[in-house]
Amino acid sequence: MDTMEAIMTRKSVRAFKDQPVTDEQLEQIILAGTRAPSGLANEPWRFSIVKEETVKNNIAKLTKHTKVLEGASALICLFMDGEVGYDLVKDSNTIGACAENMLLAAHAMGLGAVWIAEIRKNKEQVALECGVDPERYDLMVVMPVGYSDESSEPTPRKRTLEDVIISRR
Ligand SMILES: Cc1cc2nc3c(=O)[nH]c(=O)nc-3n(C[C@H](O)[C@H](O)[C@H](O)COP(=O)(O)O)c2cc1C
C-alpha cells in the first residue's frame, strides 16, 4: 500500500476480531511512531504495550470506551516523557504526529486501531496500570489494536476542500 492510499483508506476501528496480534506487529507500529518528526528532535514519545487480559480490562474500565479496549488484542499506551519535553504545544503536536504514523502503519499492516483520548481523564491510573511513573509520563493516547471486525469504508468528512481552504493568494 502506498502512502496516499494508506492515508485515504485509514479509518478508526473500534470493533475487533478475536485474533491475536504479535509482538512483532506491535513493535512495527511503535517503530513507525518513532519515525515521526519531533520539535528539536527531542523524541518525547514513550510506549507501553499491554497484552495481559487483567491489565487491559483494568485500563478499559477507566474510559467510557470499555468495550472497545476489552475487544482489542492489545493496547499501546502512548506517553509524553516530561523529562525531555520543552514546549507543551509543540510536544503535543509531536505526539500527534507519532500517533498518526502508528495508525497508518497499523492500517498498512492490515490491522485496525483507534486513537482514544477520552481516557486522559484517568491518565494517572492508566500510567500506574502500565507500571510507569505518572509524574514523569503524561498519558496522551491509548491505542487499541487488533484485526478489524468493521466495514472498511472510511469515515466521511464533513467538509470539502473548498470549505477548508480559507484563502488563496
Ligand atoms: C485528538 C483525538 C482524540 C480522539 N479521541 C477519541 C476517543 O476518545 N474515543 C474515540 O472513540 N475516538 C477518538 N478519536 C478518533 C476520532 O473520533 C476519529 O478520528 C474521527 O471520528 C474521524 O474518524 P476516522 O478516524 O475514522 O477518520 C480521537 C481522535 C483524535 C485525533
Textual characterization of the structure:
Helices cover 38% and strands 15% of the residues. The model has no long low-confidence stretch (mean pLDDT 98). The protein contains seven helices and four strands. It has one domain (3-164): NADH Oxidase. The chain is of the alpha+beta class and 169 residues long. α2 packs across α5. A four-stranded antiparallel β-sheet has the order 1-2-4-3. The longest helix has 21 residues, at 88-108. Bound molecules: flavin mononucleotide. The site of flavin mononucleotide has 10 residues, from loops.
Q: Return the CATH class.
A: Alpha Beta
Question: Roughly what fraction of the amino acids lie in strands?
Answer: 15-25%
The helix content is 25-40%
CATH level-four homologous superfamily name: NADH Oxidase
Q: How many individual domains?
A: 1
Short characterization:
With about 170 residues, the protein is an alpha+beta fold.
Element layout with pairings:
Elements: H1 3-9, H2 23-33, E1 45-50, H3 53-60, H4 66-71, E2 74-81, H5 88-108, E3 112-113, H6 123-130, E4 137-146, H7 161-164
Antiparallel strand pairs: 1-2, 2-4, 3-4
The structure holds flavin mononucleotide.
Flavin mononucleotide is lined by residues 11-12, 14, 65, 114-118, 155.
